[in-house]
Design a protein that fits this description.
Order of helices and strands: EEHEEEEEEEEEEEEEEHHEH
CATH architecture: Sandwich
Distance between the termini: 32 Å
Largest sheet: 8 strands, antiparallel
Number of strands: 17
Structural class: mainly beta
Helix content: under 10%
CATH topology: Jelly Rolls
CATH class: Mainly Beta
Radius of gyration: 19 Å
């Protein structure tokens, strides 16, 4: 079904999918996060239930979760800056680079401002055990205008697979199999939300830098969900990470989280066929030999 037209052509209505965001409790921003950087450009709103993160000539800004998590479901509802946003990067991601600088893990949503008003690009990426020499990026055009309202960006990470979801529609699944096991994220991570200047690379390889005539650039966050296995110092994983409602180490290890439902598979296929325009697994110019997970059966 076609809804409205954009500068990129038709915008399609996504298929119905399960709402994973309805299965977990929502927190206020102040409950879940501390200021990461650019404190003067972080503004709590609605008594701390939401926040504005600002990029201007002086600084970007960001939040970091109060806890570190091993496995879980993590969500941020974001509303992105409007107008000319080339070079602006809004990121929602998991990382432990501050603790493991040489073998860190990372799961990324990066939203890249573009040189046309509505053409934000969604990029996902994963690193495991310091595998930064192999970029595993995939890029999508969105099926909505992300500057007009809040939209949910979610990451589900467990021992079975990693899911990247937008408004509960899966856009990428990374199955934990033998081919990718050596670079599958394996250590507790913090969750970050940031806005920053990516002029050197973000828009067409740095062709269009941030134009501060349009500053300040403001992204708003609410809808915080941080349902994971909280990592605590001086405690075993099993004792530190059990969710209150289950004895499992993995808080998203129920049957419904092991594999995609039929609805979710339909949504994943829809998103990738209609909206993905780049995958590292198709980039034979970049990789003469594709990473092993790209050719695994």
């Amino acid at each position: 079904m076609i809804s409205v037209a954009s500068s990129l052509g038709p915008m399609y209505t996504p298929p119905e999918v399960e709402r994973l965001t309805d299965r977990f409790s929502r927190l206020s921003v102040s409950q879940g996060y501390n200021v990461f950087f650019g404190g003067v450009n972080v503004r709590l709103t609605n008594n701390g239930s939401s926040a504005d993160l600002i990029l201007d000539k002086s600084s970007g800004s960001g939040l970091v979760s109060r806890d570190k998590y091993y496995y879980g479901f993590f969500n941020a509802a974001l509303k992105l800056p409007a107008n000319f946003t080339s070079g602006v990067v809004v990121a929602f991601y998991l990382s432990n680079q501050n603790i493991f600088p040489h073998n860190h893990d990372e799961l990324d949503f990066e939203l890249l401002g573009y040189d046309k008003r509505r053409d934000w690009v969604l990029q996902t990426n994963i690193y495991g055990n310091g595998s930064v020499s192999t970029g595993r990026e995939e890029k999508f055009y969105l099926w909505f205008d992300p500057t007009q309202d809040f939209h949910d960006y979610s990451i589900l990470w467990n021992n079975h697979h990693i899911l990247f979801l937008v408004d509960n529609v899966p856009v990428r699944e990374v199955v934990h199999n033998t081919a990718i096991s050596s670079v599958y994220p394996s250590k507790p991570m913090s969750i970050y939300v940031t806005i920053w200047d990516g002029s050197q690379w973000a828009t067409r390889g740095g062709k269009y830098p941030v134009n501060y005539t349009y500053a300040p650039f403001v992204t708003s966050i609410k809808g915080v969900e941080l349902e994971g296995c909280v990592s605590q110092q001086n405690a075993s994983a099993a004792s530190a990470c059990a969710r209150r409602s289950t004895s499992s180490l993995d808080p998203v290890d129920g049957e419904e989280f092991v594999k995609l439902s039929q609805q979710q598979m339909t949504g994943l296929d829809w998103a990738r066929r209609k909206h993905m325009f780049y995958s590292y697994c198709q980039d034979t110019r970049r990789y003469k030999v594709l990473p092993p997970e790209c050719t695994a059966t």
